[in-house]
Amino acid sequence: MKLNAIIVEDEEISRQILANYIKKYCPNVSLLGEASNIEEGYELIQKHELDLVFLDVEMPYGNGFDLLEKVENRTFETIFVTAYDHYAIDALNNQATYYLLKPISIDELIKAVAMVTEIKEKESELENTVLTPKVNSASLSGKITIPQQDGFEVIDVKDILFCKADDNYTEIYFKDTKKLVSKTLKHFQESLEEYAFARIHKSYLVNVNAIVKYKKGKGGSVIVTNGKEIMVSSSQKANLLSYFK
C-alpha cells in the first residue's frame, strides 16, 4: 500500500538522511514535502491528504506535540524521530505509532513503516463495512470471578463490554451497570487472554464482540454497544484491527 508522507524536522542534514533512507528502504512511502518548523509542517498537513508524518520533537518556537495539537481531525499516523529518549512517554500519549531515536536505525525505520502500512491497509479494508470479528460470541463462553467482602461473584465473560483501569482497581462495564473491583487491569487482561478481549489503550481492555464502530479520527477510537466511545492507542491499533475480518 502506498503511503503519502511528509517530514517535519528543523535540521536540514537530518531531513536529508531520513529522506534518503525512506527512498531507498521504504519504497511504498511517497514523500510529498518537507518542513523545517511547526508552521511549515501545519501548512503541508492542511495541503495534503496524508497517511504518515515523520515528526521531530524539538524544533524552534515549539515542538512536535504542539503541531499535533493544532490538527483537529487527525487521520494520519505519526512516527516521532528525535535524539531525546525521555520524550518516549509523551510521544505514546500523543498517539505516536512509533518512536525512532537518532541516529536512525534502518531496521527500526523499516519496522515502523511496516506497522503504519499494516494499520492503513486494515483500516482501508474495514472502511464502510460492518465490523465482523474473526472470533464469535461462542468464544466468549466462560465465567470469571470477582472478589467481594463476603466472598466472590461469578459473572459471564460475554456480559463484559470493557474494563477500565483505576489505579490498582478496575472498573468493569456492563450494558447498564459497572462494578469496581480491587484488581489491576493487568490481572483482567491475563484472566481474559483466552477470550476475545483486546488491550486497546493503557487504560482499556475491550470485548471485541461489543465493538460496533471504529473511528479513525485523532488517534482512533471504538464505540461499544452501550454507546461509549473509547480511545485507541496508536501503538495498539494493529493488534485491535487484527481481530476483524
In short:
With 245 residues, the chain is of the alpha/beta class. The chain contains 7 helices and 17 strands. The longest helix is centred in the middle third of the chain and has 21 residues, at 106-126.
Could you explain how this protein is built, in words?
The chain is α/β, with parallel strands linked by helices and about 240 residues long. Helix content is about 30%, strand content about 30%. The strands form five sheets. The chain has a five-stranded parallel β-sheet with strand order 2-1-3-6-7. Strands 12-11-10-14-13 form a five-stranded antiparallel β-sheet. A hairpin with a 2-residue loop joins strand 13 and strand 14. Helix 2 packs parallel to helix 3. The model has no long low-confidence stretch (mean pLDDT about 90).
Question: SSE layout and pairings?
Answer:
Layout: E1 3-8, H1 12-25, E2 29-35, H2 38-47, E3 52-56, E4 58-59, E5 62-63, H3 64-70, E6 77-82, H4 88-93, E7 98-101, H5 106-126, E8 143-148, E9 151-156, E10 162-166, E11 169-173, E12 178-181, H6 185-191, E13 197-201, E14 204-207, E15 211-215, E16 221-224, E17 229-231, H7 234-241
Parallel strand pairs: 1-2, 1-3, 3-6, 6-7
Antiparallel strand pairs: 4-5, 8-9, 10-11, 10-14, 11-12, 13-14, 15-16, 16-17
Helix pairs in contact: 2-3
